[in-house]
Each structure stands twice: as structure tokens, then as C-alpha cells.
Amino acid sequence: MKKALLAVAALTCMGSAALAGPNAGGTLIAALSEGTVYTPDIPSYCGDVTATDCETAVPQTGADGAPEVINILAAFNPGNRLVGIVFGWSYSPNVVIENYGACGDFELANADWPASGSGTAVTWFSPQTEQLVPVYWAAAYSWDGAGTLQLGLHPTQGGDFADDTIPAVLDPIAGFGTFGFGVPGSAPCPQAGPTEGACCFADGSCTVTTEADCDGDYQGDGTVCDPNPCPPPTAEGACCLDTECVVTSADDCARQGGDYRGDGTTCDPNPCAVPTIESSWGALKNNYR
Fold first, then answer.
1. What pLDDT digit, counting tens, does each position of 181-239 carry?
2. Distance CA 122, CA 89 (A)
3. How many Å apart are CA 79 and CA 225, to the nearest integer?
4. Domains defined along the chain, listed by start
5. Looking at the DSSP assignment, which residues form a beta bridge with residue 99?
6. φ/ψ bin of 237: left (φ > 0), alpha (ψ from -120 to 50), beta (otherwise)
7. What's the pTM?
8. What span, in angstroms and rounded, lies between the C-alpha atoms of 74 and 84?
9. Residue 132: which of 27, 6, 205 has the closest Cα?
């Protein structure tokens, strides 16, 4: 259990990263809010994201000592469902975090946050499904030449995305960006992985997997198992085709002109091998014609 994600645990009975979830492959980047002028009178800059996708993010600015608005963004492949994140950051000694704030519904930060080398956790009450999710913002600058702000692991809890399943699946953050002041930064974008969807089995169960790994009925890319799209299993029983017995559904038995013996009946012992009274009497009459 991730201690720094207590809020997510309370909402979703936090799980583990044993299986890849919908946030797998996602990255965390820092992007300049282009053209935004920072003022301390504005309480939040979460809505001032100017990047339209990960590829258009600008991960650097000048080193002129003026505070710039920086958006911390979670970048995903299609199909993400983000309700929690835990991460940290570190920065050069000459970088100053003048102001900052979370873009979720709840934050659980270390006592020394936003110090370099510290970490925080952010959660949402409903899943975030955009491919670029605002996680945090900061007004920052470097006061004596070039510097960097490096996103990374929480000092004790690592770096993970949590989804909205119960228990939640934790997907490791696949890449962390660097924001440069007077130097180039980097914004790693998520790599496209195998597309997954819901896979239905004959017993009505459902699992999310790739089409290639689905041994049942694949429901399509991006489909999910909650709510369950799989039809319930069809009731079957013994079907007598003369003295031959097969286990099938009542409808299939009728199509073959068979005698359906009821849901849940079996062919062991064979209920069709012993002639019925009616068939024995009919055979006897035929012998005396």
C-alpha cells in the first residue's frame, strides 16, 4: 500500500502494480504556460495549459529571473483513467519556487514540500480521461544563470499513477520530464503500446487484454469490463438425438430435432440409451402388424 496515496486508498481500496492498468506507459512532464503572466492574485493556474498534446509542450524558458507559470502534466495514450498520482521533484540551488498548487481534489504532500528532493500525492474524486491531465502548477524562476527543475520519484513512495478500479491498479510513471531555465528541457511522451480491450468468455467472465491474447470474444479496442459487456452463459443440458446424447442448449437441441432433457442434465449416464415406454410400445405394435 502506498502511504502517500492515502486519499486514493480511502476512495478505491488501493491495489498493486501487479498487472498493467489503463494508465500504463504514461509520463509526467513540465510545460511552459506560453504567454501567461504570473501574478500572485490568481489562486490557481491549472486552467492555463497551452500545450495541446505532449508533442507541443515547451519544456524550457529563459533565465531572466522573472517567474514563469509551469504546468506539471500527466501524458497518456488513449484509454487512461487517472484518479491519483505520487511523484517528487528536485531542482538547481538557484531555482526558486515562488508559488505552487495542486490541480486535483486532494493533496497529501510531505512536510517539507515544495523543497527540492521532496514529494507529494494528488488525487481526484472522478477519473481523469484526457490524454494531457493537469496535475500541478508552479511559478518558478532561476535567479543566477541557468538551472533545471527535474520531475522524478517521491523520496519514499516512488512514482505511480492510480486508476479507478477497486482495488486500484498502480502503473509506474514511465518517464519524467525536465524543465530548463536558460537551458533545454525534455518532455518524454508516452510510447504507444499494445492496444487492449474487453475479452468475453463463454462463462460470462471478462478480462482486459490485447486482441491477440484474447481466447474469447474481443469487444474492441478501448472497451472495458466495468460494466461487464459479456453476455451471461447459455444454460445447457442433455439433448437426445435418438439414442445419441449431446450437451447443448435447449434452442440448439430443438433445431436438431432432439429431445432436451432439462438445464443442467448430463450425458453420463446416457439418458438416451434406454428406450422410453412409448418407443418400446410402438416397436411392439410394429412387430404385430
1. 999 999 999 987 667 889 999 889 999 988 889 999 999 887 889 899 998 888 999 99
2. 14
3. 13
4. 3-181 (2.60.40.680), 237-287 (no CATH)
5. 139
6. beta
7. 0.66
8. 11
9. 27
